[in-house]
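Reopening this ticket.

The earlier resolution said the output was attached, but the attachment link was broken on my side. Pasting everything inline this time so it's all in one place.
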Amino acid sequence: MLPPADEILSNFELLDDAHEQFEYLMELGRQMPALPAEAHTDDKLVPGCQSKVWLDMQVRGRGDEAVLEIGADSDAHITKGLVAFLVALYAGQPVRRVVEIDALQMFRDLGLGQHITSKRSNGLRSMVDRIKAEASRVAAAPA
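Inline output:
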């Protein structure tokens, strides 16, 4: 089970070294609930990622108060940690809030952006874009 996003952010602030940050990211990936095998489908793959990333998003409710439930997985340890961070940050939030949260800025503020490759950074952006697009779609639907 993933810790709450505010706890994750606090823990990152205590880590000075890039190696420690990556170790913590991989630990988050190991704590993420397993994505069922039947959710590993091509339509759930996130394009633009160096590694394979699956996002399984379910909606509870309607309109801008609806909540996204997000399951995810990756075939790479660090990427799985990155997606675990996003799941902790966005899952269970009302879709109107998901659209407002700037995960990429949080990564930059934590100093993580400078330590990941450009391909991983592009993949992270693709994951965020996919989550925000789904949240926007749900928020725009009639309640």
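Reporter confirms the inline version is readable. The beta strands are 53-60, 67-74. Helices lie at 5-14, 18-31, 77-90, 95-100, 103-110, 118-140.
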